[in-house]
């Protein structure tokens, strides 16, 4: 019997584990293209894994938020399985992966916020030059388990140029004047290197057919930005909803400004959606990984074919 080359996903995915897993996948599957979109505040590489050679291009993004590290596990598992079954010549959900490979290109950024994830999993390193400043942002606490922001306290999913000025007014109303564990949008759109790098990557690969962003939690799909969506995309997102069982919803209040989905819809005119994966209290435990993945698996493999 041929030995499976599916990597174990038994532990939270920090930046070191991500780097190791990406290297393993690249060595195991020569068909997989591995590149980078840029570096984080603390100089960590932000890898992108590329599946396929087709003209229709899509983007999957995980781990905007530190304590949502489980989304990196989910996307790496998807990449791993895609490569494994493609290599074996086996279909997935009756889909011929060779046909998918030739028709589509799926760009996967499993971990946009490696610094924030390392804070959330390990706390802040004593040698970190931002240590005293960031601990102050965290209310003087050294427990960073619920940290969402990047290394300097900017919430990456509010740093996109989509309703940024309106969000700044809401920040004042909600007393978020500066860097914080969550919800501070930064000094300007794309002020953070992680967001700027991703936006440039999207611009360079335009036109993308769709963008799918994984967050936790709530088992919902946000597919509009202030009531707007890209013309002709509704059928695709309804199919996505049916496959994973997550209802289509609209983000409200602070959550409805400055996100990647908002920017893609409003500025780039790209169909985009946010999957709020799993249910519970963030950070979701690693024991939730496999049940969440099983529920999303068919949707991740099928989503490109909706476009």
β-strand amount? 5-15%
Structural class: alpha/beta
Main-sheet strand order equals 1-2-4-3-5-8-6-7
> Which H/E pattern describes the elements?
HEEEHHEHHHHEEHEHEH
Helix content: 25-40%
For the largest beta-sheet, the strand count, sense and barrel status come to: 8 strands, mixed
SS field, number of helical segments: 10
Oligomer: single chain
Question: Low-confidence spans: pLDDT under 50, at least 5 residues?
Answer: none
CATH topology: Aminopeptidase
Draw up the topology in text.
Blueprint (H helix, E strand, L loop, with lengths): L14 H14 L4 E7 L5 E8 L3 E7 L7 H19 L8 H7 E6 L4 H9 L8 H7 L26 H10 L19 H12 L5 E6 L4 E3 L11 H11 L3 E2 L10 H9 L3 E5 L12 H14 L5
Parallel strand pairs: 3-4, 3-5, 5-8, 6-7
Antiparallel strand pairs: 1-2, 2-4, 6-8
Helix pairs in contact: 2-10, 8-10
Summarize the structure.
The chain has ten helices and eight strands. The chain is α/β, with parallel strands linked by helices and 307 residues long. The protein has a single domain (15-306), classed as 3-Layer(aba) Sandwich (Aminopeptidase).
Task: Explain what this protein looks like in three dimensions.
- This protein has helices at residues 15-28, 70-88, 97-103, 114-122, 131-137, 164-173, 193-204, 234-244, 260-268, 289-302, and strands at 33-39, 45-52, 56-62, 104-109, 210-215, 220-222, 248-249, 272-276.
- Helix content is 36%, strand content 14%.
- The protein is built from 10 helices and 8 strands.
- Helix 2 crosses helix 10 (289-302) and helix 8 (234-244) packs antiparallel against helix 10.
- The longest helix has 19 residues, at 70-88.
- It has one domain (15-306): 3-Layer(aba) Sandwich (Aminopeptidase).
- It has an 8-stranded mixed beta sheet, sandwiched between helices.
- By secondary structure, it is α/β, with parallel strands linked by helices.
